[in-house]
Amino acid sequence: MSLEWIIRIITDNWAMFLRGAGVTLLIAFVGTVIGAAIGLLAGVIRTIPVPESGPKKVILKVVNIVLSIYIEFFRGTPMIVQAMVIYYGSAMAFGFDMNVMVAAFIVVSINTGAYMAEIVRGGIISIDKGQFEAAQAIGMNHVQTMWNVVMPQVIRNILPATGNHFIINIKDTSVLNVISVSELYFLTKSVAGNNFRYFESFFVACMIYFVMTFAVTKILRHFEKKLDGPDSYTMVDAKAK
Q1: In the chain, which end has fewer C-beta atoms inside a 10 angstrom radius, N or C?
Q2: Can you tell me the distance from the alpha carbon of 74 to that of 113, in angstroms, rounded to the nearest whole number?
């Protein structure tokens, strides 16, 4: 490895590296946000109590089967294969010429949603049943219980897992090069192909990935501490006021 070549590669191609890093962060962020929303919706639906009879039971059964198939399929297949199927498959099967960025957002979002659905479901199940019973005792229905009692706790509990998936998505966007998305890995291949210094080029990319994931980790931990509140609380005497 030549330090001189690393400096030269950065100097000559910094704009390309910066553009690739920006696309990587954009895809990872949008995919994580949309995926988290999909996961929240799927997780809540899968925890709705199923009545013993009636049309609601049939509807919930069908919806749960569909969601189970979606979750198992996208958790059980590689993202790189999903990208190929969604991008090239949509063109071959339906004649739909999809934009590569749109395909990237769809792939990362639905893949993240499948994992987040199980994370959310686990977060809801972890809430003590006594809180559900207490909410029902004061007249709340299931939607009100989820919105006012359960979800604030679940969101806080799943925040570390969501942040972890954001970091995973930053790295996993590299597989989208198979559909020619101009993210960091794809552009690094172009840089390496131009100068034939593959080791130095990908070493620079490696450092950029590390900086992005490290910075995101620190930012997420900061927000987690903010949600936790201060370590000590001062009790205020109402009479003193």
Answers
A1: C
A2: 9
